[in-house]
Design a protein that fits this description.
The protein has 140 residues and is an all-alpha fold. The chain has two domains: 88 residues, 434 Repressor (Amino-terminal Domain); 45 residues. The protein is 59% helix and 0% strand. The chain is elongated, with a radius of gyration of 17 Å. It holds the Pfam family HTH_23. InterPro entries: Cro/C1-type_HTH, Lambda_DNA-bd_dom_sf. This is Helix-turn-helix transcriptional regulator.
Length: 140
């Protein structure tokens, strides 16, 4: 298995393909039906299927896709190489969320706000990716 096959794009494409195949066999849905039922645009579904994306899919869309198709969102997050964030011992109602810095809350809100331009979201994600992967120089 090559590195390209193990990319988040390839893994997520396989996840989406399985979910759509299940929807086709269980409900007789087409890709257009899946798009309508999940609230994810048809072109986005096709991009996910092709693994044709640079920035990670919007997590709200991934959650909506999973919810409408009754597939675990944690499986989608794992396919994307993200922690699934779904503790198994607690129900959603009982889950205690860790405190989040006000600045981080603003960033998360902007990334999920449909009124924020995609270009701005891309800038935010690019900066976060840069900060997450930069080499920190140590004094001394």
């Amino acid at each position: 298995m090559g590195a390209a096959q193990d990319s988040p794009q390839a893994a997520f494409a396989r996840f989406v393909r399985r979910a759509i195949d299940d929807a086709k066999s269980e409900h007789g849905w087409t890709v257009s039906d899946v798009a309508a039922q999940t609230g994810v645009g048809r072109s986005t579904v096709f991009r996910w299927l092709a693994g044709d994306w640079q920035d990670y899919p919007e997590l709200a869309k991934v959650r909506g896709f999973c919810s409408a198709l009754d597939v675990p969102v944690g499986a989608a997050f794992r396919a994307l190489g993200l922690p699934d964030g779904e503790p198994t011992s607690l129900t959603r109602r009982d889950r205690v969320e860790p405190p989040v810095d006000a600045d981080l809350r603003v960033i998360m809100t902007r990334l999920t706000d449909p009124a924020v331009a995609p270009e701005e979201k891309k800038l935010i994600r690019d900066m976060l990716r840069y900060l997450a992967h930069r080499q920190v120089r140590r004094a001394g």
